[in-house]
Amino acid sequence: MILKSRAFSLALLLAIAVMAPGVLKAQDAQPMSETPLGGAGGGTKTGGGGVTGIAPGDVGGTATGTAGPESATFDGTYIWVASQFTDSVTRIRVSDGLTAGTFTVGKRPVAVLAAAGSVWVANLLSDNVTKLNPTTGAVSATYAAGDGPGGLAFDGTNLWIANREGNSVTKMSTTGANLGTFAVGNRPLGVAVVGDAVFVVNNFSNSVTKLSLAGAVLGKYAVGRGPFGVAGEGANVWVTNYFDKTVTKLRAADGLNLGTFKVGDGASGVTFDGTFMWVVSNGDNNVMKLAPSTGSIISTYATGKGPFAVVYDGAKIWVPNFASNSISSTAAN
In what order do the strands lie in the sheet with 286-290? Predict the structure, then answer.
């Protein structure tokens, strides 16, 4: 397999990192339901376990045996999953878990977001964003983004797109107008809107940049090694640190570090369900439920192989499994 030069470094580092033993084995975790997504290699019932050395959004070409489902979002009816190696998104009806269509988007879709009545897909190698009609799956429009778009957030009016290769974020209207591109740290991955600010995770800078909704830099805060995902929880911001096996809790107002807590190997996706924090451990093939007040682990659930993302639909937690071509789910409470 040939790795694209601009992505080789992190792919190699992640491949090495996930070979290390995890802090919690899959057999110690509670089971989740698992649904095959199809695509290259088909879905596999795994229930956790195994190791993946495939880095998110970094491997060139097609990964043997996997469609690479990496990101997911919920639109109120469906879970949408972006599969980067098939250049497509698949929607799953949450009421019964059935697949309700697969739709072609741009090249290497690595992020997906339901916002403003549409589904938005960031296409890493097309340097654009695809806008889909959530009812039909039809492409409504395609808009140019920055270099290597790979993260998406919505501030209630406009989209924010993290450009991995451009070390920037782009503010875009829902009609595709570029409202500004703003410099952040090295290799921005995750982006989230918390309160009246935008928080951008800088994967190669081990930091988080805080921007105003106008794009002005309000602060830059140190976190752990290889920060990956970010999510808001009330007045706080949670950041996963892939290489440290930790998650950091920051006060959104001023970036004060309120605690760094141990989770699993390859801490990646993170979300808040209104009561608990959920953190994906890519190297351990699980997702952990944490108490946001203390950062303590309440329970752990086995996923399929190589999960990177997690999404909440109001009742269930869903985790797409990058190396299993599947999606796992469990009741949140």
Answer: 267-272, 277-281, 286-290, 297-302
Q: What does DSSP assign to residue 307?
A: B
Q: What is the pLDDT of residue 65?
A: 55
Instruction: Read off the amino acid at residue 19.
Output: M
Of 145, 73, 80, 83, the C-alpha closest to 108 is 83
Intervals of the chain under pLDDT 50: 1-27, 40-55, 58-64
Amino acid, res. 225: R
pLDDT at residue 333, rounded to an integer: 87
- The C-alpha atoms of residue 183 and residue 300 are separated, in whole angstroms, by 37
For residue 135, what are the contacts with CB-CB under 8 A and spacing of at least 6?
Answer: none
Distances (CA, A) of 239 to 192, 208, 242, 280, 321: 10, 8, 10, 12, 20
Cα–Cα distance, 223 to 85 (Å, whole number): 31
Check if the beta carbon of residue 130 is closer than 8 Å to that of residue 87.
no
What is the extent of the structural domain holding 28?
5-331
Assign residue 141 the CATH number of its domain: 2.130.10.10
* Whole-number Å distance between alpha carbons of 214 and 196: 10
Distances (CA, A) of 23 to 29, 183, 258, 268, 284: 12, 36, 23, 15, 7
Total domains in the chain come to 1
Helix (H) or strand (E) holding 10: helix 8-17
- Give every CB contact of residue 114 below 8 A, 6+ residues apart in sequence: 73, 74, 75, 76, 80, 120, 134
Between the alpha carbon of residue 33 and those of residues 134, 152, 270, 296, 317, the distances in Å are 25, 27, 19, 24, 10
Check if the beta carbon of residue 63 is closer than 8 Å to that of residue 85.
yes
